[in-house]
Task: inverse folding
């Protein structure tokens, strides 16, 4: 196939690409709780079926958050060629985070202005989904007898761990090394970057424990909040400085994420503030903190956990009445695809063709659904590549550039043509 012809075909679909992105953004698939998954899955499924794909709607019954009110509904589409070839799978998550405040535009109106589409999910990642759809459609229009298999999945719950989406599909065998050769996830990592993986993550709940008493006589109780304060002080004086010394050889972006980090996601202590906003006057007998520890490929997970537990044990020894519990919530090991893997190389070559410059090979500071494809599907030939600026994800006035949508669709199409033909 003439690469210029393919690029021209996609460029001619610019308006179609804009409208598909806008149609997706106008469906407010906010997670949590997981709204409007079915109409969004059906929009994608109906479009791909009309282009000759076999389409399945798959509800991940029993996964976290799934209910009859908020069903975890995924869509999987497949186009199998008449000639043998490789299987390329595009995966994109259809859920978005809540809009929040601070917007200059209606977050679900998909406003077009100054060469951009504004709205929640434009960058993360409905623009990437639309670009992948246009890329595969253009390939089939120009080469109806395209060998191999093109697959597409629109999945749920990436923003809350991906358990009802990609993790479940991997468990069911839809995304595994036995059935798929290459995976491209069009996350917003910038159109000139190939993302090879992610840092690791460990979420945990720390609870400090106290003894309840009347608030006017706190000396009769033991404040769990004060004990948590001692833990926070230990973080500040010991753990944070230690983490700042840990650096990685992984090409994580932005630069500040090339060290180990710890975020305190939430902190809850004492009694519930009632309808009048005033809690009961008692000493807190419990205080809970959720920590979000991002770690590097050079760090063993057992060491990461031990750093926190050792501080807790030291406080148990040194602080009178200090008691705690530590509960694992979520953990993912770092993922790093070899930059010489076929999918990484072919996407990089396509970036050079379309943009005229060498791509950057990067690693994401946070996790995305590659973690499940790698861990459960045992499918290591996977990268993230898509339009959109990473720093705009989850922010007010999120947008995706229209030129970026077109260019990234061209890159995806050129790389996919090479991969299905087995040009590795």
Result:
């Amino acid at each position: 196939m003439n690469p210029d012809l393919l690029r021209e075909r996609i460029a001619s679909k610019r308006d179609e690409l804009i409208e598909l992105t806008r149609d997706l953004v106008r469906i407010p698939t906010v997670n949590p709780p997981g709204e409007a998954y079915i109409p969004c899955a059906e929009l994608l499924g109906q479009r791909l079926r009309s282009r000759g794909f076999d389409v399945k709607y798959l509800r991940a019954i029993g996964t976290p958050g799934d209910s009859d009110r908020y069903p975890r509904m995924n869509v999987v589409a497949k186009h199998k060629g008449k000639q043998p070839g490789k299987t390329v799978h595009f995966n994109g998550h259809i859920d978005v985070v809540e809009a929040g405040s601070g917007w200059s535009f209606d977050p679900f109106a998909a406003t077009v202005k100054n060469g951009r589409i504004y709205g929640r999910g434009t960058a993360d990642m409905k623009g990437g989904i639309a670009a992948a759809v246009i890329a595969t459609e253009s390939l089939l229009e120009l080469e109806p007898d395209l060998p191999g298999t093109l697959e597409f999945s629109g999945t749920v719950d990436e923003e809350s761990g991906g358990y009802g989406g990609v993790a479940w599909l991997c468990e069911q065998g839809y995304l595994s090394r036995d059935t798929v050769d290459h995976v491209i996830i069009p996350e917003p990592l910038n159109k000139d970057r190939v993302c090879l993986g992610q840092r690791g993550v460990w979420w945990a709940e720390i609870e400090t424990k106290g003894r309840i008493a009347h608030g006017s006589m706190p000396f009769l109780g033991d404040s769990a909040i004060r004990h948590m304060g001692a833990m926070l002080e230990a973080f500040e004086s010991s753990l944070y400085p230690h983490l700042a010394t840990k650096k990685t050889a992984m090409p994580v972006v932005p630069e500040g994420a090339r060290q180990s980090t710890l975020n305190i996601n939430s902190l809850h202590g004492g009694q519930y503030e009632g309808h009048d906003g005033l809690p009961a006057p008692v000493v807190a007998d419990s205080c809970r903190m959720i920590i979000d520890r991002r770690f590097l490929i050079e760090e063993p997970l057992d060491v990461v956990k031990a750093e926190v537990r050792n501080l807790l044990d030291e406080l148990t020894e040194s602080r009178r009445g200090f008691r705690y519990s530590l509960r694992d919530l979520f953990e993912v090991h770092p993922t790093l695809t070899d930059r010489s893997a076929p999918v990484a190389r072919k996407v990089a070559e396509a970036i050079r063709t379309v943009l005229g410059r060498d791509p950057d090979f990067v690693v994401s500071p946070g996790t995305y659904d590659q973690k499940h494809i790698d861990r459960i599907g045992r499918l290591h030939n996977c990268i993230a590549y898509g339009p959109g600026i990473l720093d705009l994800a989850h922010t007010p006035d999120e947008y995706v550039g229209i030129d970026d949508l077109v260019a990234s669709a061209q890159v995806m199409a050129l790389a996919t043509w090479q991969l299905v033909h087995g040009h590795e």
